[in-house]
Each structure stands twice: as structure tokens, then as C-alpha cells.
Amino acid sequence: MNPETLRSQILDYTKREMSLHGTNGLTMDDIAKGMKMSKRTLYKLFPSKVCLFRVCLSDFANKIRGSVQQQQIRMDSSCMGHLFITVNGYLTLLHSMGKTLLLDIAEDDEYRSSFERENTFWLQQFIDILTHCKICGFLLPEVDTDRFAAELREAIYQSCLQGTPYIVQRMLNYMLLRGLFKMDGIRYIDEHLAFDKLNVCV
């Protein structure tokens, strides 16, 4: 088998297992057995568990980032539409990783620093899009976009750590955002919320 194809298959398998068992509950032995390959072959492609898991964490993030960018390019919409795409992208990333993996990362120096960089990236995305909404006149004038972006990102992250279901969290995010906007923005959120209740991918 082509090494790149094999590498891709290992990453896909490992990401699924990481989301179920976290970093502490998964070993290179487990991965080699699950892939029906020798550990020697596995170590040729990934020299350590830390290396493999860091690549998997990057892969989780890059796929969601790519999906968000594609949706934003396809959508010829206002900053409000882009806000929902961005917030839902971060939520989807955390839920694709799963509570067990997120808890392990939070407690492990080997992985926490790289994931903190990812959280910093999403925080900046929240700040940028909320600032854009404020410039467009949708947000209430007293809203501090930097502060709210940080609070929103942290609320989403902490809810995922606590195991809040995806659909519940998604609706809570809409309610949090609703309190920031002028009437035109609230109308958009309410329309989006009514539509989204019928079109949620969990």
C-alpha cells in the first residue's frame, strides 16, 4: 500500500479512537492491533505516540478550519451569516474531538500547548467577526467585542468539557448571541434558529 494512503488511514483510525478513549486510554499497541499492522510499520510512519497524536490534533483542527472557510466562500451573506458559521465551526471541532479527549488534553502538557494555540486561533476569529458585526451596526453599542468573544469561546469550551450535548449547546450559543444584537440582528438570529431546529447535524 502507498505510504501516504496508509498514513491517512492510520490518522483516520487514530482520530476515531482518540475521540472515544482520549490520549490516556489509547496506546500505540492498540492502534497497531486495530489497524492490523506491526508496531514496527506504525513506528516507521510515526516515531512516537506524541508525534502521532499531535498530527491527529492538527488534522482535527485543519479539517474544521477548511470546512468553515469553504462555507464562508460559498455564502454570499452578511457578517451575521459568517458569525454563525464561525461559532458552529468551533463547536463542531470540540464535539468531533469528544469530552474524554478534551479532558485528557487539558491535563497533559504534551498536548495542551498545541491545543491552546488552536483556542487562540478561534478566539481571534470570534473577535474579528463580532467586530465586523459591530461595524455593520448589528451589535448594541455597549458590547465589548473582545471581552464577549473571550467569554463565548470559554463558555463553549467549558460546556464541551462538561459533556453538554451538541444540539443543546448550539441552541445556547444562539441565545447568548441574541442578547448582543439590535432588532435587525435578533430577527436574523430568530429566523436562523427556527430554520436550524429542522436542519441540525449532530
Secondary structure layout plus pairing:
Layout: H1 3-21, H2 28-35, H3 39-45, H4 49-74, H5 79-97, H6 99-107, H7 109-135, H8 145-161, H9 166-178, H10 183-196
Structural notes for this entry:
Residues 4-64 form the HTH tetR-type domain. The protein contains ten helices and no strands. It has a domain at 57-196: Tetracycline Repressor, domain 2 (Orthogonal Bundle), CATH 1.10.357. It has 202 residues and is mainly α. Helix content is 79%, strand content 0%. The chain has helices at 3-21, 28-35, 39-45, 49-74, 79-97, 99-107, 109-135, 145-161, 166-178, 183-196. Helix 8 (145-161) packs antiparallel against helix 9.
Defining key terms:
202 residues, mainly alpha, Tetracycline Repressor, domain 2, 10 helices, disordered C terminus
Briefly summarize what is shown.
The protein has helices spanning 3-21, 28-35, 39-45, 49-74, 79-97, 99-107, 109-135, 145-161, 166-178, 183-196.
Largest sheet descriptor: none
Q: Compute the gyration radius: what is it?
A: 19 Å
CATH topology of the domain at 57-196: Tetracycline Repressor, domain 2
Please give the number of β-strands: 0
- From the helix content, strand content and strand pairing, which structural class follows? mainly alpha
> Which CATH class of the domain at 57-196?
Mainly Alpha
Indicate the proportion of strand residues. under 5%
Global mean pLDDT: 88
CATH superfamily of the domain at 57-196: Tetracycline Repressor, domain 2
Share of helix among residues?
over 70%
